[in-house]
Specification:
binds adenosine-5'-triphosphate; five-stranded parallel sheet; Helicase, Ruva Protein, domain 3; 18 helices; 45% helix; Rossmann fold; alpha/beta
């Protein structure tokens, strides 16, 4: 339970008393002047300050500047007499949260305070979560929806049996890597290493030596001292194999042997090595299709999938969208040193009603862009590009023929735009299954992934 403290700074005693009496749920400190408030701030920093503008001595606007200089994140609600409205405008420009006009109407003051405290609550929640992640070494997995809570519950249970492999299935960007980290950190092996390999990112010929290592002189070009493989590096911990569907056949056979016996052969070795490693694998491909097509060993599929964790797409758990967006807002604001307290209501409505082909990764990209481009304290839809980018509704596949006038045309940019539309549409039709999406477009899976990474995920060449 989060608790809040606030200062009310007003020279009129009955206003101070009214605020104290009407806000029983909060710790309220009543102060009669700006000077007293500055003194009190040396002992205690509240969440919110209600600050009268017409104070004797140092006035409210001067005090606002002084306090902001010391505590830039502080939220203020200014209290003003009606005729002070011009001064209020000046104060609003200094970034105060809101203002109320005397005589005070307690109901509307309470509503204003509640709104301000809501943004503080979110800030505190994110901070508490981030601190927990740091101290407990937990991956920051925001899990509001019952679907992800169910996934995390399963993860907690299976993490306890470090001999059981875990297979994580889900569309790209749903958080499979985070879940793999959660399996590791909640397991008895959490003090051991967590070693990851993206099987799609390495040329097939290199995967075996990367995973199992090689002996000195195993092949021409081998390092003189040989090489330790990832299996050996992960001993006593967890090996995470991302995009496991891309594992070439020889590596599949060796992995199966390792899972069955705990033994492996380095390339060029005559005697086996031994390592105790928990294997967690993930894929966004349909492994059953790969098995049916003879591209993935059935026995390995069964062995890896002793425990299957299915991560639903973000579109299937809309309750997660805003909590995850707020989590990223806190993270990005800290990363870029910017002061954001939340989203505008319109930005929240647009975020919540949008569909996410790229799942959480796409949402993260939107918020990051917003934080970079926008100015605080509330992040607007425009800064995230939500106005120009019409939400993908699954209908249009891209622009029609762009006009070619005497000024010419950026043909490659236009073609990329069309391709981007088709890639997105195919992914949507295939419900995020990249193997199926590639088939729909008559593309080879690897070409599809390469083009998707470049055009949809913006990951460059
Ligand atoms: N529930 C969540 N809470 C917070 N961050 C999340 C959550 N889910 C995903 N993310 C973040 O979204 C990004 C994409 O997640 P991740 O890399 O785990 O996806 P993935 O399913 O492994 O994707 P791919 O299949 O493309 O490898 C990461 O930055 C991750 O930290």
């Amino acid at each position: 339970m989060l608790d809040y403290s606030l200062f009310v700074v007003d020279d009129e005693e009955f206003i101070r008393d009214a605020v104290v009496m009407n806000l029983p749920g909060y710790r309220v400190r009543a102060l009669a002047s700006a000077e007293e408030a500055l003194e009190a701030l040396k002992q205690e920093v509240p969440d919110l300050i209600l600050l009268d503008i017409g104070l004797p001595g140092m006035d409210g606007v001067q005090a606002l500047g002084r306090i902001k200089a010391l505590h830039p994140q502080m939220l203020f609600i200014m209290i003003t007499a009606y005729e002070d409205v011009n001064t209020v405008v000046a104060a609003m420009k200094q970034g105060v949260y809101d203002y109320v006009v005397k005589p005070l109407h307690m109901e509307s003051l309470k509503a204003t305070i509640d709104n301000a405290l809501e943004s503080i609550r979110l800030r505190k929640e994110v901070k508490a979560l981030q601190e927990r992640c740091l101290t407990e070494n937990l991956p920051c997995m925001v899990a509001e929806s019952h679907q992800i809570q169910g996934v995390m519950e399963l993860v907690k249970q299976v993490a306890q049996s470090p001999d059981a492999p875990v297979l994580i299935l889900g569309e790209t960007g749903t958080g499979k890597e985070l879940i793999a980290a959660a399996v590791h950190y909640q397991s008895p092996l959490h003090r051991g290493p967590l070693v990851a390999l993206n099987c799609a990112a390495l040329p097939k010929e290199l995967i075996e030596s990367e995973l199992f290592g090689y002996e000195p002189g195993a092949f021409s070009g081998a390092r003189a001292g040989g090489k330790k493989g990832l299996v050996e590096q992960a001993a006593g911990g967890t090996l995470f194999l991302d995009e496991v569907g891309d594992l070439p056949p020889e590596a599949q056979a060796k992995l199966l042997r390792f899972l069955d016996s705990g033994q492996y052969y380095k390339i060029g070795a005559t005697r086996p090595g031994k390592a105790k490693v928990r294997v967690v694998a993930a894929t966004n491909q349909d492994l059953e299709t790969l098995v049916a097509e003879g591209r993935f060993r059935r026995d390995l599929y069964f062995r890896l999938g002793v425990v299957k964790v299915e991560v639903p797409s973000l579109n299937r758990r809309p309750e997660d969208v805003l909590p995850i967006a707020r989590h990223f807002l806190g993270e990005m604001a800290q990363k870029y040193g910017k002061d954001f307290t939340g989203f505008t209501p319109r930005a929240e409505a647009l975020l919540a009603s949008r569909r996410y082909q790229g799942n959480v990764r796409e949402l993260k990209g939107l918020v990051e862009r917003g934080v970079l481009v926008g100015t605080g304290p509330l992040l607007e839809a425009e800064a995230m590009g939500l106005d120009q980018a019409a939400p993908p509704d699954g209908g249009e596949a891209g622009p029609g023929l762009a006009p070619l006038g005497p000024q010419g045309l950026d043909l490659s940019g236009t073609l990329e735009e069309v391709e981007r539309g088709y890639l997105g549409r195919a992914l949507e039709l295939a419900q995020g299954n990249e193997t199926k999406a590639a088939q729909l477009l008559g593309m080879n899976y690897h070409t599809f992934r390469y083009r998707k990474k470049k055009l949809l995920d913006g990951e460059g060449e």
